[in-house]
Structure to design on (278 residues):
């Protein structure tokens, strides 16, 4: 598998991964900027806690890759930008891929690409654009041995949920995850479902493709810790959390607490203790 060397940079020796997503500024939504107004500071804070990867855009990736030393997290490069967030949708929706994403990723020494697969209510054209983006990107990524992380997102109606809320319907999530597998995902960044105890069904439908679960909307410390513990029990290979880390009052401590769950099998009590100690 040509992508294996870079996948080995992304996942730790135990086959698990915690990727901190800090690519929110790409999406032109003011609420996403809280906690990352100063990107250099935000990235350095997260790096200090030692996650496996950091997810960034082409404009901000140099802030990670300019840090000296061998121990910094791997780079996951966001390759697409969309305007589907916010409570009121614009009249024209899009999900656009950056030009020559694989070459840009190679220049930035990325370990992985990330691309969306949106499923929005009554917006089939956005879904179609995502599929087109993936179909264009996959063969080029394979040619250069660049792993492709597909992000299936089943979203609620914007006016009802504010534009960035997971639907939570496991049947919809399973179907979209399976579509991502069929399109050639090397890694899948998937929604959590309403009843996390059922998540083994999502893992099963993904087969050999590792599942990293996204954080979704902001949650309380106890909720996000308990959810992560249960997700790891259900067989996922890790997590990709953004706002629950970068908008936390102690982002480095939250990173360390989540790393203890992903890699050390910490339970809720131990992880919350790590969070409170820092």
């Amino acid at each position: 598998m040509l992508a294996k060397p870079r996948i080995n940079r992304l996942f730790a020796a135990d086959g698990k991964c915690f990727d901190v997503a800090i690519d929110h500024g790409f999406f032109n939504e003011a609420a996403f900027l809280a906690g990352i107004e100063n990107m250099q500071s935000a990235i350095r804070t997260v790096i200090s806690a030692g996650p496996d990867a950091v997810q960034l855009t082409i404009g901000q990736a140099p802030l990670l890759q300019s840090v000296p030393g061998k121990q910094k997290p791997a780079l996951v490069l966001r390759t697409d930008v969309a305007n589907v967030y916010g409570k009121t949708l614009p009249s024209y929706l899009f999900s656009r891929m950056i030009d020559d994403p694989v070459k840009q990723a190679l220049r930035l020494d990325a370990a992985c690409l990330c691309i969306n697969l949106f499923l929005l209510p009554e917006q089939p054209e956005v879904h179609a654009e995502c599929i087109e983006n993936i179909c264009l990107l996959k063969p080029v990524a394979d040619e250069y041995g660049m792993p492709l992380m597909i992000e299936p997102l089943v979203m609620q109606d914007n006016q009802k949920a504010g534009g960035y809320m997971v639907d939570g319907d496991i049947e919809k999530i399973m179907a979209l995850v399976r579509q991502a597998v069929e399109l050639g995902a090397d890694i899948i960044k998937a929604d959590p479902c309403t009843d996390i105890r059922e998540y083994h069904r999502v893992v099963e439908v993904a087969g050999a493709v590792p599942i990293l679960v996204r954080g979704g909307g902001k949650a309380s410390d106890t909720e996000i810790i308990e959810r992560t513990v249960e997700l790891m029990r259900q067989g996922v290979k890790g997590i990709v959390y953004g706002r629950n880390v970068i908008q936390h009052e102690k982002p480095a401590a939250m990173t360390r607490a989540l790393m203890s769950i992903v890699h050390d099998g910490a339970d809720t009590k131990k992880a919350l203790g790590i969070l409170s100690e820092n």
About this structure: The domain at 4-277 is CATH 3.20.20.70 (TIM Barrel). Residues 124-143 form the longest helix (20 residues).
